Structures are given as C-alpha cells and as structure tokens.
Amino acid sequence: MDVAMAAAAVVSRIFFSLKFRTKSKRPRDVRLASVISILLMCPSTAMLHFDRLKGVGNMWMFLSTILFISGSIYLLSAHYYVAEHPSLVRWSQWKKEKWIGSGSFGQVYLASYRERGFFCAIKEIRIPDPDSKEQIEKLYWEINILNQFSHPNIVQYYGSNLTDGILSIYMEYMPKGSIHKLLKDGPFKENTIRHCTAQILSGLAYLHAMEIAHRDIKGGNILVGPNGEVKLADFGLAKKISYEAAIHSDKGTSFWMAPEVIKSKFSGSGYNLLVDIWSLGCTVIEMATGEHPWHEHCRHGEPCHNPIAGMFRAANSDDTPEIPEGLSEEGKEFLRQCLRRDPRSRSTAAQLMDHPFVREYFAAA
C-alpha cells in the first residue's frame, strides 16, 4: 500500500504540473485526468487532493466521489476475496504440517495457512536432473493439465513453485482421503457406490469433452471431501487424446488397466479415452468388494495378488473381472457396459450418465 501511495503521489505531481504547463484552453480536462488517475491507483491518497477540485464544478465532484467510493469498495472486496480463497495465498505462506500419502511421481503433505484457517495438499516431486529440460517439461505436464480444469469433481489447483530441484504443486485438501483408504473399513453400500460413481462419471465426462484421458482411475486416485463430495486427483499420467486417436503406452495401475492398454505395449495397437471407462468399472468393483478387480482368481483357481498375473489375464484371455453378486441388476448392467473388452462397444462417460444406476443422481443435481 505504501508503494501504491508513493506512486500515486508521483503521478499526481506530474499531472498537476502539466496543468500549469499545458497550452490547452481546457485546464479542467487536465484536472479531471489527474484526479481519475489518482483515484484508480490509490483512493486513499486521492482524498488528499480533493481540495484541488475547487472550480471544477459539481459534475466533476460527483464523478470523483463515485470513483473514490468504487475504488474503496474494490480494495475492501479484494481483501475479503483473499480470505475466502486459498488459491490466492502465496506459496511461501503455506506451512508444511505432515506427510499424508504418495501420488504419481511424488510425496503429498498437508500444509496450513493459520492466519486464515486454510489447508492445502502439497505434492512434492524431486527432479533427478534439475538442468534437464525434458524432465522439467514432463513434470510441468501435470501442472498444465490441472490449470485447465474448473469442475466440482476435480481437485482444485492452487499454484506451484520450483525450489532446489523440488517441484511443489499446491492443491485442494480433501480431509477424508481416498476411496481406497475409506475401504479399509469395509466395502461400500450400494447407495454410496451410486453416489461416488455418478461423481466420478461427471468428472470423466468433463475430461473426455476436453479430449483428456486420466489413465489411472482407481480408488487411490479418487478423493473424498468433508461433505461426501468425490473428486478426481493425481493427473501425473493424464494425456490429451481423442476417441479416435490412439496412444501407445502402458501407463496406469495394472489391476485397473484396460486390456488394450496392456496389449499396446506389445502390439502397437494403441487406445483411446475409453480406457478410463474400463478403469471406472474396476473401481466400482473395488468399492463393492474392498478388493482389486481381479481379486477372485487369476489362473488355475488361485487367488490373484500378483499385478503381473492380473495383467496377463486381462491381456491374454477373454475374461472380465467378476461382477459382485451383491450388486443390484442395475449395478451389474452398468458394469457390463464398462467392462466390454472391445472398446468400440464400450459406453462413453456421457452415455453412462444416463444409465439407471446413476441417473437419479444427475436428475437431482
């Protein structure tokens, strides 16, 4: 504020000196310009110059008063806007509190801004070679992705900074943690599954409309807020593609991977946005059972806890993950549409939003 006042004083001195030097026959125009400039830069300083308005006329006095009031309201509203939005807190003001988990490529910490009672999650990613342009570009990919989003079912991005080879990404804090964490207390009831699935779908439909695939949908990357709101997180593997275009990578978590993702590494066939729909189906199974989607059997009737075995079954058989018997017929049919091995026959996120399993949620929204 002191800098703004000093700047306003300098500008005002320049303008008022111009009033005496100008050859214009309308000195009131110069006076008006100076007053408006001061008011816009610093309303409090402008009050010191109101005595110079003598002779300007009632109209100019009225206009100046309106500008002063507007400027004061703007400064007050800006102050309270900061109080209500953690995204405007400077990164240096966040205080790291404790470690809360791991995400793709980094560790996640809880941080606070005690002056306002704000909290955020800080994802710290150590750069192996800070001088590598390629590594920097890869790490900033997630930031660029997050910065595009504005959706109630996607975690909010606050900002980032790079210090001593560590990239810190500041994001919305979700106090209840991930769905994976909540499942440690047991499988979800179907109403809860419907509620979560609808919100995941809403976030996916938004991403897919932007031609962005998440590529790592699972309970561990879906966070829950204080009021039960569900949001997609951890976009370290996200990729901008389309329904038609194919990409070639085996990124993702093995038990939740679509068959075409696993095959793409060897066949070069590629895949599209619909890999997220398969992973969504696997996540519904996860919520219904508390286990990963291939937990029943992998081969020869043996329980499957080996990610490689799960990938082998997904890629080299005609099997799909077993649909939980406890689900309603609507839930089972929803899963069948998600878990079609041929992605060309798999439903899109927008289509699934109209499915009876989740339709009621969107009708009430």
TrEMBL record:
It catalyses: L-seryl-[protein] + ATP = O-phospho-L-seryl-[protein] + ADP + H(+); L-threonyl-[protein] + ATP = O-phospho-L-threonyl-[protein] + ADP + H(+). It is an enzyme of class 2 (transferase). It comes from the Eukaryota. The chain crosses the membrane at residues 30-48, 60-82. Keywords: ATP-binding, Kinase, Membrane, Nucleotide-binding, Serine/threonine-protein kinase, Transferase, Transmembrane, Transmembrane helix. InterPro entries: Kinase-like_dom_sf, MAP_kinase_kinase_kinase, Prot_kinase_dom, Protein_kinase_ATP_BS, Ser/Thr_kinase_AS. Belongs to the protein kinase superfamily. STE Ser/Thr protein kinase family. MAP kinase kinase kinase subfamily. This is mitogen-activated protein kinase kinase kinase. It comes from Panicum hallii. The lineage of its organism: Eukaryota, Viridiplantae, Streptophyta, Embryophyta, Tracheophyta.
